[in-house]
Amino acid sequence: MTEKLYEQDSLARECKAVVTSCVFDGEKYNIVLDRTVLFPEGGGQLSDTGRIEGGGKIVHVLHGTEKAGTISYCCDALLAPGTEVTVYVDWQRRLDYMQQHCGEHILSYSFWKLFGVHNIGFHMSERMVTIDLDQEITQEQAVQAENFANEEIWQNKAIHVLYAPSSEAAKLAMRKKNEKIKGMVRIVAIDNGDVCTCCGTHPPYTGMIGIIKIMKMIRHRGGMRIEFLCGRWALETIRQEVQYIEEASNMLSTKEKLVCEGIRSLQEKVRMLHEDVRQQTDVIQRQEIDEIWKKGVNDGQGNVIFTVMKDPYTPKSAKMLLQKLVAVEHAVAVIVYCQENRIYYMVGSGAEVNLDCRTYLKLANTLFNGKGGGSPVLCQGSASVFSQWKQQAEKLFECIRK
Ligand SMILES: [Zn+2]
C-alpha cells in the first residue's frame, strides 16, 4: 500500500519517501514508493507528472497508476529499492487538472441544482473538458448554470474531504454516489454546495478554480455535451480567441463587436460580385455560342457533337456553357478546361440524344489519366494538369468527332 499524501493535502508539492520497488518492463522503469504526493490517474482526473530525486539521480515520473492501493509510477530511469528520495509534483499541471476536475464538480452541480439535469459522462484531455448531460438544455439555461457555477467560485467556499462507511454514505444526500464501493467511501463536500463521492484531488477552496467558461454545447445522444474550461486553461484559451477576433477586426478595419457585421457585409459583396460575373459570363457565352454551333459535328447517329476547350475557366462558367449547348435537341457537348493546376472535363446531352455520355467520359479518363463519373446525360471528371494536356484534349475531340 502506498500512503497517499495528496488525499489529506492537495497543496503539498513535495515529500520525503523511500523506494520500495523498481521493475524494468523492457521499456520503462516502474517505481513504487512508500508514500507520495503524486496523484495517479483515476476517477476521471489525469495522472500527475513530476520527478523523484535521490541517490544522486533525478528520475522523471511520466505517469502513475493505482492497483489495490499500491501506486506504480512509470519512470525514465532506475532507482534502487531502499533509496531515500524527495518526490516533487509538476505543480502547474496539477493545478490545471485540479481546476478542471473540481470545476467539473461545480458545473455538474449547477445543472443538477438549477434544472435537475444529471451528468452521465465526463472526459478530460489536454485543453478540453466535457460533460454529458442526460437532457437537452437551452443556451439560456447554460448561461444560468455558468453564472451559478462562477458564483460558487467567487464565494470561495471551503471544500472538505470526508470518509464514511459505505452503509452510512448510502444514506447521505449526494448528487452522485458510487454504490459499488464497499468499506470506507471518500466524499468531497463543498460548503452549502455539491456533495459527491470522488477519489481525485481538489483545492481547499473553490476560489482556486478561478473561472468556469462553457466553450461549446452540442446535442448528444438525447442529451447535451458541454465543452468547458476552468482556471488557467480558460484564461489562455479566451486570450487566444480574443486575439483571433482582434486580427479579424484589424483585417476588416472595424471594431471587435462589429466583426460579424463586417463578415456579413463582405459575404454580401462577394455574392454581388458572383452575380456580376455570372451575368457577364452569360453575355460573353451568348456571343461565342454561334461560333461553337457552327463547328458542331454530326456523329452519323443523329447527334450533333460540340467540343470546347478553355484555359482558364471555372466550374460555374463551364456548367453555364454546357447548359446553353445542350438546350437544343440532339446536342452533345464536351467541355475541357483548366483551373488551378487541374484539368476538368464535362460531357452533357440534350433531348433526343441516343448516346450515353459516359462513353466519352471513359475516353477522357483514359486520355487524361483522370477520374470521374455521372449519369448517361451528364458526367464529369478531373485530372492533374500536365504540359501536353491541350494536345491530349484535341486528341479526345478528334476521337469523338470520328
Ligand atoms: Zn473530484
Write structural notes for this entry.
The protein has 402 residues and is an alpha+beta fold. The chain has three domains: 3-89, Beta Barrel (Elongation Factor Tu (Ef-tu), domain 3), CATH 2.40.30; 95-231, Threonyl-trna Synthetase, Chain A, domain 2 (Threonyl-tRNA Synthetase, Chain A, domain 2, 2-Layer Sandwich); 295-401, Diaminopimelate Epimerase, Chain A, domain 1 (Roll). The protein has helices at 5-8, 91-115, 139-154, 166-169, 231-252, 259-294, 315-325, 358-368, 389-401; strands at 3-4, 14-24, 29-33, 35-36, 50-54, 57-67, 70-75, 84-89, 119-125, 128-133, 159-165, 184-190, 195-197, 212-220, 223-230, 297-298, 304-310, 331-339, 342-349, 371-374, 378-384. The strands form five sheets. It has a six-stranded antiparallel β-barrel. The radius of gyration is 34 Å and the shape is elongated. The model has no long low-confidence stretch (mean pLDDT 95). Zinc ion (ZN) is lined by residues 101, 105, 188, 198, 200, 202.
Task: Give a short synopsis of this structure.
This protein is α+β, with helices and mostly antiparallel strands and 402 residues long.
Keywords:
Diaminopimelate Epimerase, Chain A, domain 1, alpha+beta, 402 residues, 9 helices, 6-stranded mixed beta sheet, 3 domains, 21 strands, Threonyl-tRNA Synthetase, Chain A, domain 2, binds zinc ion, elongated, 6-stranded antiparallel beta barrel, Elongation Factor Tu (Ef-tu), domain 3, 33% strand
